[in-house]
């Protein structure tokens, strides 16, 4: 099996590499098929997914692929608002370019998307059949990417995840740990609810799903929901840090940070249809956070990332 991971140095791409090298995620062992897979890990400097030339030249200079897992994205939600053309190029044209290249080779494309394709106005966890209605430039660019990928390669999996954190790269957990080093209290939004999701759990599901032919759209998040403020509180509890979480509303946060993008109020995803294909379930967000603390401490030692 010849596999390409794009955006390989981001938090998800790095976690996939870690899982493959160890033969397991934090959920458990991954399939033995990955032990014998030949995997190319391409960072943004090696392969710019937004450029059809870069994608074509990469595919022309490598043996045909069986699976491509697209972890490349512009994930800076506020940055996407300011530079929609770059967001669209990366998050929409990128998956389209990969879909065209993989379709030519009969390869599968695993494309990762987001809960931010939903408006967050509805109550109840969103199903794959629910109609998306993004309220941010990031969400619009990602939704366009889903459609462009699936329309160009019928052998595409779109996997929507949420509130992702891993060991490499930037994420909310690391931001809270960093802020707590300098401040005794942090102000965090309490009226946006979602599913904090471990990159290790998501990597496990992607590696398993990509061995199947169950093409289509899936939701894949850790189980359970909380607000950002609850998440911050849990991070400080798990890491044994004394830092007070001051809860604020989205309106208060927007007033203090007028340049920031609007985010969905309730963007929880229902991942149950994934488990008809991949039996190993993702953990609860709190269980995953507990084991992330151990992974974080053994990865970074006593230092913060
Ligand atoms: N992070 C979240 O909370 C979250 C939530 C829901 C869904 N997702 C989705 O999950 C996926 C993985 O996210 P992540 O958190 O791992 O993101 P990440 O840490 O920001 O990594 C994204 C990677 O993509 C690379 N990249 C950016 N533009 C590129 C381009 N034009 N060509 C090739 N590579 C490019 C980046 O490289 P450079 O750093 O060199 O630019 C980076 O290494 C994305 O599809 C994202 O939309 C993430």
UniProtKB/TrEMBL annotation:
SUPFAM superfamilies: NAD(P)-binding Rossmann-fold domains (SSF51735). Keywords: NADP, Oxidoreductase. The keyword NADP applies. One of its GO terms (cellular component) is cytosol. Residues 1-294 form the RmlD-like substrate binding domain. It holds the Pfam family RmlD_sub_bind. Its EC number is 1.1.1.133. One of its GO terms (biological process) is dTDP-rhamnose biosynthetic process. Gene3D superfamilies: NAD(P)-binding Rossmann-like Domain, UDP-galactose 4-epimerase, domain 1. It is an enzyme of class 1 (oxidoreductase). Pathway: Carbohydrate biosynthesis; dTDP-L-rhamnose biosynthesis. One of its GO terms (molecular function) is dTDP-4-dehydrorhamnose reductase activity. InterPro entries: dTDP_dehydrorham_reduct, NAD(P)-bd_dom_sf, RmlD-like-bd. Belongs to the dTDP-4-dehydrorhamnose reductase family. Catalyzes the reduction of dTDP-6-deoxy-L-lyxo-4-hexulose to yield dTDP-L-rhamnose. This is dTDP-4-dehydrorhamnose reductase.
């Amino acid at each position: 099996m010849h596999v390409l991971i794009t955006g390989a140095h981001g938090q998800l791409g790095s976690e996939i590499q870690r899982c493959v090298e160890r033969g397991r995620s934090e959920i458990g062992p991954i399939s033995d098929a990955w032990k014998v897979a030949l995997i190319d890990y391409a960072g943004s400097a090696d392969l710019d997914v937004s450029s059809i030339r870069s994608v074509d030249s990469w595919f022309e200079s490598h043996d045909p692929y069986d699976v491509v897992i697209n972890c490349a994205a512009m994930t800076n939600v506020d940055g996407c608002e300011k530079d929609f053309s770059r967001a669209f190029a990366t998050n929409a044209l990128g998956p389209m370019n990969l879909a065209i290249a993989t379709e030519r080779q009969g390869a599968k494309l695993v494309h990762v998307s987001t809960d931010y394709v939903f408006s967050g106005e509805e109550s109840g966890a969103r199903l794959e059949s629910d109609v998306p209605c993004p309220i941010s430039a990031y969400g619009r660019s990602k939704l366009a990417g889903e459609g462009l990928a699936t329309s160009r390669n019928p052998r595409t999996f779109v996997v929507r995840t949420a509130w992702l954190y891993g060991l490499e790269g930037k994420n909310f957990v690391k931001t809270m740990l960093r802020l707590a080093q300098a401040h005794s209290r942090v102000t965090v939004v309490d009226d946006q609810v979602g599913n904090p999701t471990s990159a290790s759990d998501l990597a496990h599901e992607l590696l398993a799903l990509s061995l199947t032919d169950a093409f289509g759209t899936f939701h894949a998040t850790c189980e359970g929901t909380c607000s950002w403020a609850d998440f911050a509180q849990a991070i400080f509890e798990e890491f044994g840090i004394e830092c007070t979480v001051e809860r604020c509303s989205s309106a208060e946060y927007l007033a203090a940070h007028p340049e920031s993008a609007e985010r969905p109020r309730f963007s929880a995803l229902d991942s149950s249809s994934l488990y008809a294909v991949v039996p190993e379930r993702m953990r609860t967000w709190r269980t995953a956070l507990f084991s992330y603390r151990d992974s974080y401490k053994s990865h970074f030692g006593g230092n913060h990332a």
